[in-house]
Amino acid sequence: MATSFLLPSPASCNYRKSQVGLSLLSENWQKDITYFSFCIRRQKCKVKLYMIPYKAIARRWAFKRSASVGSLEVDAADQGHRFASGFSAPNDFVRYNMLHDSSSNPLDGMSDFERQLQEFFDELKAMIMMGNKHDAIDLLQANYEAVKEQMNAGTKGIEEIAILDVIALGYMGIGDLKFVQSLLDMMSQVVDNLKDDEPLLDAILMHMGSMYSTLENHEKSMLLYQRAINILEKRYGKNSIFLVTSLLGMAKVLGSIGRATRAIEFYHRVITIFELNRGAESVDLVLPLSGLGNQLIKEGKATDAENVFTRILKIYTRAYGENDGRVGMALCSLAHAKCAKGNTDEAIDLYKKAVKVIKDSNYMALDDSIMENIRIDLAELLHFVGRGQEGRELLEECLLITEKHKGKEHPDSVTHLLNLASSYSRSKNFVEAERILRMSLEIMTKNVGPDDQSISFPMLHLGVTLYHLNQDEEAEKFVLEAVRIREKAFGKDSLPVGEALDCLVCIQTRLGKDDAQLLELLKRVLSIQEREFGSDSEEVMLTLKKAVFYLDKLGRKDEKFPLQKRLYHLRMKYKQRVQY
User: Fold this and answer.
1) Strand partners, 38
2) Of 14, 26, 200, 271, which is the most exposed, with the fewest CB atoms less than 10 Å away?
3) What residue spans of 44-98 are helical by DSSP H?
4) Cα separation, 489 vs 252, whole angstroms
5) Whole-angstrom Cα distance, residue 343 to residue 519?
6) Reduced to 3 states, what is the DSSP secondary structure of residue 38?
7) Which domain of life is it from (predicted)?
8) Whole-prediction pTM
């Protein structure tokens, strides 16, 4: 698929590696799934867990098959569009007889300690979901102080680590990753000295692996996942369903660090386990198939990915009927694979069918962010094939839905306004793009501070649009302000600053600014691009071309020659790439 020029939802306050109006990159929606899966009962509880005193019975959330290790049906997440992350996914502490009976009460048969862990987790989840962040922090802190006191007194066993595990997951849900890191370091010191036959250890290792992965400590994550796999293989055998969570976690980490072949092997192993235990048409296969398909697309194996997503579509259609919303999500993934193959017309038809199925089935709300991103993907594809008017209609629909549910001047509407402006710019309708961008900038100015980095997006867009309208003085004013804001927010040598400086050079060139000054700006851009994209990147080649032009104009031949030689080699490299 062509480089994305549309922004995903919601409104972007985080910088994306982009070229204004040309390639605002979409985010990868796929996220991690973790599961609670404690398996051994404890007869005694040495550590008292603090609970909410006025609630005799802890809140429990409905025990869905989608959250158990025994069955991994995960609704829209099956397609890689709605993978849960952090605190929301895991919800069972006990791996017991749920492999074929999803209606069992998750608290039946637990020891007192396991029951307290489950209730503790349920309380935390309920608080976080209801927005009671401060209460959740108080509860986490009380339990942390209690278990820390126990550990300082010399008690450093599995029960203390199990409580720290839940506390760490709680802080993950709140978003305090710095404290999660310190908790994991504390846990690692104890876990490393525990024997593999300790009850609950395999599940704790899985959770730690997932959290380390989120913190991008991939080596530590893989070590923990591998230890959990070894424990489970010894206990249940190499084809046990209990291995699935750790195997999927390992596959995800391997994929994220570029070890694609090994990642694909792990996905295939999970698929084999499910086929042996559940059959070749089980909906449980959708999760590993989705991970495999997405990994294959990343590796450029679009045909193999297409086959994988076609299988998912068949599984869901057979299980739920062709009008089910899950089938719509499967169609989206298949459309993505078609795009990767270059079959854009087929991809558009699949996306349109998917949108209709999801809408008609009421599978998700119209303002759901997943649904919004599907429309944006389809709009982007329509623009790519030259059907810009159809694409704009979808973008306008996104805007209207956001305004209806959140209000006309809500910051989230700016994403859609920016996308519409990009669409009009692409169609050379810069007057309409300017109008929309001024509206976007006004909304952001009302909602955030004057130095907030999110303002720089509509500001830079507006500067580029004014440049196309030959309003260079005003364009320079907006771009200079965008540079100032980004330097303060991201640092002077950051990629966002490099992007804005690149735009500034174009504008100031036409304004007739000093050539030496422009060359210095280009050198800054070049340095940033080399660090971010690599010294042989196409971005670097384009900036080298500009730098050589100004060096020649300034008569600085000694500086020009090495850059010119380097530019020649890069041009030959990209020329050969185009030929092949």
Assistant:
1) 94
2) 14
3) none
4) 31
5) 43
6) strand
7) Eukaryota
8) 0.76
